[in-house]
Amino acid sequence: MSPLARIEDLHISFGGVAAANGVSFTVERGEFLALIGPNGAGKTTALRLVAGLLRPDRGCVVFDDHDVSALPVHARVRLGIGFTHQTVRPFYGFSTIENVMLAAGHGRTASPWRAITSRSRAAARDKACAILDRFGLGTQAEQSPRALPLGQRKRLEVARAIALDPRLLLLDEPLAGLSSAEATTMADLIRTLPAQGITVVLVEHNLGEVLRVADRLVVLDAGKVMAQGAPQEVMARDDVRQAYTGVV
Amino acid sequence: MSAYIASLVSVIGINLILALSLNIITGFCGQVSLGHAAFYGLGAYTAAYLAKLGAPLPVNLLAGTAMAGAIGIVVGLTSLRVRHDFLAVTTMGIGFVFLGFVRKQKWLGGELGISGIPGPGLDAVSYALLIVVFALTVMGFSLWIKQSWMGFTFDAVAGDEDAARTVGVNVSTYKLTAFGIGTALAGLAGGLYIYFARIILPDTFDFVQSIAILTMVVIGGTGSVWGVFASTIALTLLPEVSRAAADYRLLVFGTMLILVMRFSPSGLAGLVRRRPA
C-alpha cells in the first residue's frame, strides 16, 4: 500500500535563510510519526508546508497519491489533513462546544449553499459532545475558551481538529507549556488516535513523551532530514544525539 | 393610512432593507463597508434607467438587485486582499468612484439625476405595503441566515479568518457571498426607492448616506437583526418627531455613534443582553 503522504524535496527560505533545504520523508498509513530536532531545525516549517500554511519555493506534498502542493489550507483540511497550531487559536466568540461543533459540521460548511440550506445543529452537537467527553472537556462545554486554562485549551484545539475527521493529523507542539501531568494526559490522548484511523505527525520538544508515544522518528537538522527510523534505533545514533542534545 | 404615514412607512421599509443588508456584510461576516450607499445607488440607477425605457417594475427591481450584487462581488474581491481599516478606506473609495461616475454621465442625467420615473402602478398606500412586505422578507431572510450554518460560519470568519481556514472554511467564498447578498439587497432597496421618490439625485447615495446606514447597524448592534430593526425605525422616525434632530441629523447621528462606541459597543442588542434578569 502506498504511503499516506509523501513529502518530497521541500525547500523554503526566509530572508536568505533556508528553513527547509530539501526535506523529504514519507508518512505511512496508521503510524504515529514524530518530527524532532534542535531549535531552528525546521520542524514547524515542515509541518506548516504540509498543512499549506506556507508555500514551498520548491518540492511537493503528495497526500493519498494526489499532489496537494497548490491547494490552500481549507482544501487540504477537506481532503483530510488536519492540524493544530502551537499557539492555540480557538474562536473566542464561541463556547467550547461551538468551537468543536463548527468542525463537526464540516459537511454543512463545505459551500455557502449547503450552509444556508442547513439549520439543524443537533448531529454536530452530539458529535462534539462525544469528542469533548473523550478529551475530558465535557463539563466545560458551555464555557468560553477564555475561561479554560492552557492545558484544556490545548485539548480543545486537538478536539476541534479531530471533529474534522482527518486522516492525517499534524500536531505542532501540543505539549508545549503544559505541566508534566497535563503533558502526560495529552500524550495519552493523542497516542490513541492511530487506533481510530488517524495517522499522526507530531512536532514536539518533550523527548520523553515523544519516545513513549511515537512509532517512528524523523530527525531534522538545519532544514534537512538527518535520520529516520524506530525511536530507540534513531536515538542511539551519535550524530543524532549530538545534533539534538549536544551530547555524544 | 394617510399619504404622510404611507411615505414614512416606505422610508422605514427602504432603510430597514439597507441596514439589514449592510448587517449581513458587517454584522454577520465582519467586513467593514463604508460605501454601502453606492450599491443602493447602483440598484436605483439601474432600475430607473430601465423604468424610463418602459420596463416593468419586477424586471427593474430584479435588474437593480442583480447589478448591485454583481458589482458587490467584484468589490468584495478587495476584501480578500485587505482587512479592517484598509477595507474601510477601500469601500469608502468605491462610494466616491460611484458618485464621481454618475455625476459625469449625461445618459444618467449627470448632476440632475434621473427624473420623470413612471409610477409603480399602485397607489401610495399599496406601494408602502409592498415595501413593507419586501422589508419583512429581508428580515426573515436575515434571521434564517443567522440561524443557519451560514450564520455560524460567518461568525467564525468574522472572529478569526485563519482559525476558520483550519476548520475547512473557504473564507474567500464566504466573504464574497456576504458581499454578494448584502449589496444585492441594497440594490433592491434602490429599486424600491425609485418608485417611491420618482426622481433620483446623485447626492442621495453619497458618503453621508453610507454613514447613516452604518449608524443604524452600529446603534442596533452589529449582527443583531432585532437590534438593527429597532434602531432603523427609531433613527428614521427621530427627524420626524424632532425638528432639531432633523436640522442637526449628522451631528445627532455622529454623537450617537460615539456614545454607542464608548458605552455599548454591541449597540442596543448588547444593552438588552446585559440587562439583569
Number of helices of chain B: 13
The secondary structure category of chain B is mainly alpha
What is the distance, rounded to the nearest whole angstrom, between the alpha carbons of the first and last residues of chain B?
39 Å
The third-level CATH topology of the largest domain in chain A is Rossmann fold
Please write the CATH class name of the largest domain in chain A. Alpha Beta
CATH architecture of the largest domain in chain A: 3-Layer(aba) Sandwich
Average pLDDT rating of chain B: 91
Q: How many strands in all of chain A?
A: 10
Q: Which strand-content bin applies to the residues of chain A?
A: 15-25%
The largest sheet of chain A has its strands arranged as: 6-7-8-3-9-10
Can you write the helix and strand succession of chain B as a string? Answer: HHHHHHHHHHHHH
Oligomer type: heterodimer
What's the tally of helices of chain A? 10
> What is the 3D shape of chain A?
globular
The CATH superfamily of the largest domain in chain A is P-loop containing nucleotide triphosphate hydrolases
Distance between the amino and carboxyl termini of chain A: 38 Å
Write the layout of secondary structure elements.
The complex is a heterodimer of chains A (248) and B (277).
Chain A: E1 5-14, E2 17-27, E3 32-36, H1 43-51, E4 58-63, E5 66-67, H2 73-79, E6 81-84, H3 96-104, H4 112-116, H5 122-134, H6 150-162, E7 168-172, H7 180-191, E8 199-203, H8 207-213, E9 216-221, E10 224-229, H9 231-235, H10 238-245
Parallel strand pairs in A: 3-8, 3-9, 6-7, 7-8
Antiparallel strand pairs in A: 1-2, 1-4, 4-5, 9-10
Helix pairs in contact in A: 3-5, 3-6, 6-7
Chain B: H1 3-28, H2 36-52, H3 57-76, H4 84-103, H5 124-147, H6 149-159, H7 161-166, H8 171-197, H9 207-220, H10 225-241, H11 243-247, H12 249-263, H13 267-274
